[in-house]
Every structure is written in C-alpha cells, then in structure tokens.
Q: What sequence folds into this?
C-alpha cells in the first residue's frame, strides 16, 4: 500500500513525493524500497504488488524497477485501505486463486529484518492452512498514544501455531493513562497495519462484511490483466466508500488472530519518531544531510538535501527541514501542527 | 569602492556575490545600485567610477549598465582602501586634473537621499575651493561600538562653510563605556568612510604620506585609458601595501575636516543592523522573502530567496538565512561568529 500523502512529514513529504518515496534516513533507500528489500528471498519480485495513486506511477517504476510494471495498480482517487485491499486481492486472485498475501504499508521501518522474515514466513504457513485473518501485533516498548492497540486472548493460542492468538478486541489510540495500563499488561500490542491471509479469506470477508466494496471488484474478474483494466478501475473505483480495512473487516470478522512480534517496527509517523530512530550525535541531534554543523544545539532533527551546507546554532528541540522551495523550522513538541503550517 | 567580501552577511553574502551586489532589503535594488541611485542628478553616470575585484566585473556591468565599462576599474587582488583610492584618483586625474571626488563605500544605506545630496553638493563646492580633505561624520544616535568615531574641533569651523569643522582626532571603535561618553558630547561623529576632496588634494597627500603607493600609480599616467592599463595594473597593483585610507592618510594629514550630517546612514554591517533597519511585523520579525510565515516567533530576521516557502515556529531572536546551497540558523546575539561558521 503506497497511496498515502504523508502530510505529517512536510516539507520532506509533499503531495508530489510523499513519505513512502523518500529516503528519510539518508541511507540511499526510500521507505518503499526498504519495504521491498525486507521481502527479498521470501517473496519473488514478480509477486510483489504496489497499490498507489496514479500520480505516483512513475515514482514507483523508478524506485522499484525489479517488479513488473503490470504489478503496479493505480487508484484514480483515495479511498483508504479497504478498497485498496479489495482491488489488489481480487487482482491477485484472478492470477492465483490460492495465493497467500501479506498486506503491508510501504512507509514503515523494520530494523530486525531476519526476525521479520521469520514471523512473516510463519504467518504465511499458518494462513495457507487456515482461513484466518492474521494481524501482526508489535510488543509495545513505551506507552505510545499514537498507535491503535490489539488485545490478544492469551488463553486461546491457535492450534497450528503456538505464537498466534485469537484477537479479543481492537482498541483506538488510547490516552496516556490508558496506554500506561496497556503496557503493564502482556495482552496489548500495537496494531502495525500488517496483515497476512489467503486470498479466499479476504475476499470472503469482503463479500460478507463489505458487499458494497466487493460488488465493485468481483465483477471485474474478466477484465483484470487486460487492457481494459485501468479504464474500468478509473470508472468504478471512485464509487467505493472511504473506509479503512480495520473498520471494514477487522472489527467485524470472527477468525481474527494476532501474531505478537518484535522486529524493531515503527511507523515513523512523526518527526519525533524519526528523531528517536535516526542516528544521534552526542547532543541528541539527528543530521540527515552530509554537511550539517551544530553549535550549542541539542535534541534537534535536521533534514536537508544532501548537498546543502547547514549551520545550526543555539537550537534545542527543533525540527529543521528543507526541501526544494520550502523550509520548516518548528519545535518538535509542536509538530502536530505541521499539517496546518503546510496548508497555508 | 566595491571590492569587499561582506563576510559578516554570510550566507546571503558570499565571496562569489558579496553584500554590495545583494538586494538585502528585498526592494529590487542592490546596495551598489542604491549607492549609484543616490548620486542621480548630482553626478553624471559618465563620472561614476567603480573599483572592484576583477571577479566582480560582470556583476558590476550587469547591475550598473548606466556607467561606461571603462569606468569599472579592476583590482587583481585585495589591498584595502588606500591603494584602491590611489588607483582611481590617478585614473580620474588622467582624464580631468581638476576633478572633485566623492569616495564612498558601495554597501551602505542612506535613507534621506535629499539631505545626502545637499551635504555632498555642499562638500564638493567646498573642496573645489580648498585643498581640504573632507570626511562625512554621522551624528550618532546610539552608543555604537561597531564604528570608528571622528572628534570635531567645534571651535574651528571652516571659513568657507560653517557646517564643516576641523578634525581633532580619529578614534578607533570604542568600548561601550567610551561610546556612551562620546554620544553625550556633541563633538563625536561616526566615521562613515565617505570622503570628499579634489583630485590634487588626494594625490598630493599620497605623495607625502604614502610615497610607496603613489610611486606605483603616478608613473602609470601615460597608460591610463589605454589597452595596456589592465595588464600593467595586474603587474603593479599587488606591490601595494595592504592599508586603509584612514591609516594611510587621514590620521597623518593636516587639512582634515569633518562635515557633521544626518541622512539616515548605516553601514548595515551585521544581521542585527539589518534587523533594526528593515521593516518589522508587530512581533519585531523581519521577513525578507515573499512567503515567510511566523508562528509564536519574535525578534527574528529571516532572509530567503523570493520563491521560498518558509515556516518559522517558536523562535525568538534568531537569524534564519538561506541562499543557494546554504542555510544558517543562528542567534542574533551570536552573529559575530558567522565568519567562523561560514569557514568550516
């Protein structure tokens, strides 16, 4: 899933080139490239599909030359994750009715790729044998209020995989007090937005819980892979309701499981999380850019294009981000207002 | 005089395009253009001469298309103001042995151009009748420690012009205590670096006080204005000592006068002075650039290229300056370190 607009990472992330296509850490690989990389050896590039906005088609082709261009599915408009997943699921089912799918955001970070592959492999084995919907639950390391949580029913491990449990309930982003309670329990996990299932499981769930969406994509089975696909999608896709897969399916279906895991996951949803994750100097400054010089500064995250010479003097706790024709200087603690700043 | 490198205004001012060639106030006119403009009607463009570094020749031609290209004198290296003034004085003398000269920096601000023209006109009249060296002394408005001062002998007004007084002494940049004493007296004036004299006065002073310099330029009389001039200057100019006109002549000569005046002068030598001079919003922020947005910020001076979208949140008392591949964020009170920052 690569259709997001990444508005919280402005100005690095812009509607023209959102977060998933940006090399946020200055490593030479963008988020979507890192996402592709972490499936190497586990999923053949021919079986990697990208669902994105039509305006990002060229960026995806450029950043992921390994995958077939026909695997890049283009949404004519944004309708949240449920229509996106319905489209790609039916599209894949048209090619392989027995496929097992991993659904993943393309703008998250995973630091322990070995463990990630072990977990994904184990979950795929599980869904190939069951009709389970598997969500990956991240063991929380702090009382994060920016994530949704999944409560596991630890008394009900699945029979086929002792690491996988039935879901008790999904919980919205909590307040700090609730988040602190969650992390003292071992039952609560962050909702990573990564799902594993076989293709029949998800299309059946859509048939039952989202017939309005399913009735758009199931009838298109004869045209998937033909030269009529894009035009038909352009006509039909906008009719979908705007709804997330969590609301559309997860909170309604029965056979929902959670695979608790720890593989250094973050959604890197904010400058603050980037500040936490990226490499610091001894004064807790992140410098993403090759020529950034700090004087009497600490707790700053500075992100510029590689060539820029930057001098930062006397700042504590700021975001400094510069891209093309935009410069943002903002206290880290005020970063929730970036969407407001970028709009004006 | 347009050979300076303007290192205190980095990164707006760079060795490639120093302060005198920059539109610091965002008005559409650079310092050297504003300097040219304030002589309109008083000095014919054919009589405007620019002495600059050879590497700025094209910038001067572009910014001052009104003046003859042969009036742009090119120094092959920097030797401070005395050799610069010796060169242009002999060069002008070769064309008009009775010329009266105004020597002026090209990177200063004058807000009251009417009064400036009255003062300059009056001083030129005076030097056409006398062999006086006239310095323009600015009536101080604050105990500035960044300027040199001139002490006038107020008991000795000149006979021909009651506004002009003999100089008692030149004073180096004072400490704050001394500066405060200066401004309680009516005898002390800021040294503007603007001089008026007839060409014979200055060449005679150079003959007497700086024979080493004069002996380089006087023998070149036959080649000035010929196609050998530049090559000869390139050979001879580097032999000059590196010395300011103040040390070389002012502090040694006898017939030195000061013309106290008030025409809204500033050398705009620092970001702080620009902050004082440029237009403020109600929170004392200067925004030089067309799309600069402040939130919870005050006492900042922000200077960018016109097209840049800038968001500044939560800053008090900072310089934010961005040009080409450089970005500076620095407390105003630390601006004396900019030279250090720019060098690294």
A:
């Amino acid at each position: 899933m690569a259709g997001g607009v990444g508005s919280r990472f402005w100005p690095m992330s812009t509607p023209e080139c959102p977060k998933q296509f940006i090399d946020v850490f200055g490593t030479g690989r963008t988020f979507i490239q890192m996402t592709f990389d972490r499936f190497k050896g586990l999923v053949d590039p021919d079986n990697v599909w990208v669902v994105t906005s039509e305006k990002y088609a060229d960026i995806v082709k450029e950043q992921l030359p390994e995958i077939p261009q026909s695997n890049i599915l283009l949404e004519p408009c944004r309708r949240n994750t449920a229509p996106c997943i319905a489209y790609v699921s039916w599209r894949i089912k048209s090619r392989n009715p027995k496929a097992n799918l991993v659904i993943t955001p393309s703008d998250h970070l995973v630091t322990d790729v070995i463990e990630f592959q072990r977990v994904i492999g184990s979950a795929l084995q599980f869904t190939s044998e069951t009709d389970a919907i598997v969500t990956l639950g991240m063991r929380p390391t702090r009382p994060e209020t920016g994530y949704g949580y999944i409560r596991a029913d630890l008394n009900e491990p699945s029979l086929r995989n002792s690491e996988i449990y039935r879901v008790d309930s999904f919980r919205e982003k909590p307040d700090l007090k609730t988040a602190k309670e969650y992390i003292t329990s071992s039952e609560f996990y962050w909702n990573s937005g990564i799902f594993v299932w076989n293709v029949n499981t998800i299309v059946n769930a859509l048939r039952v819980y989202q017939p309005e969406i399913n009735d758009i994509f199931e009838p298109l089975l004869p045209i998937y892979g033909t030269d009529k696909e894009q035009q038909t999608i352009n006509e039909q896709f906008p009719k979908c309701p705007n709804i997330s897969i969590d609301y559309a399916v997860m909170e309604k279906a029965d056979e929902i499981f959670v695979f608790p895991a720890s593989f250094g996951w973050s959604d890197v949803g904010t400058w603050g999380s980037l500040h936490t994750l990226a490499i610091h100097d001894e004064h807790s400054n992140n410098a993403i850019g090759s020529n950034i010089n700090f004087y009497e500064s600490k707790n700053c995250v500075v992100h510029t294009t590689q060539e820029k010479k930057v001098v930062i003097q006397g700042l504590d706790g700021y975001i400094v981000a510069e891209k093309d024709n935009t410069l943002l200087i903002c206290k880290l603690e005020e970063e929730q207002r970036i969407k407001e700043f970028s709009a004006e």
